[in-house]
Amino acid sequence: MDKQNYVLCRKFYLTLISAENLPKVRKFFKSKVYAKVSFGGDKKTEQRIKADKHGELNPVWNYTMKYTIEESSIIHYGLQLVIKLYCQSKLGDRYIGEIHTSIKDLFDYAYRRGGSANLSLPMKKGDAETGAILKFSFRFGERIQKKKPGFWRRVLLPGACTLLRVAGLATLGVDVPVSFSGKLDIVDVDKLNEK
């Protein structure tokens, strides 16, 4: 096996357990609370869990998600786990609050406890704490090797996207909506549960 074509990764299992004392964001109807989980707010890593229709301001989910994360993003600061809570509404979902925490901090905390842990973190809305608590558990798996993206994905695709945007601007005077983040995927969503 050619080690230059592989990158070290770890599986990451995250279970959203529950939330307590959420602020009421709807006046007249039941609160049906769901969560969106992502890494650094990257839409490609975002997973949404179903709303709890019974717990209202104290929802319970016990929903597990699975990811593959590059080892370099686990052992160095930078990659953030972001969990945002929303209340479902036919007139537009209402934002409740969120937590941000470093994957490195989670890894260090879990490592001292055998690779897995439970946490209860205070939720914030902007810079202010909401008084709510989000409970979740997580586990890091053993190191695995993942094949690096090919030459097309690493070099040619970003170049082709840039070329299309420049050509669109030059010929049409319009920014063509072709996007590439410029980053290689350091987090992969592994489908564990159906939505």
From TrEMBL:
Pfam families: C2. InterPro entries: C2_dom, C2_domain_sf, C2_SRC2/BAP. Residues 1-119 form the C2 domain. It comes from the Eukaryota. PANTHER family: C2 DOMAIN-CONTAINING PROTEIN, INGRESSION PROTEIN FIC1. This is Soybean protein regulated by cold-2.
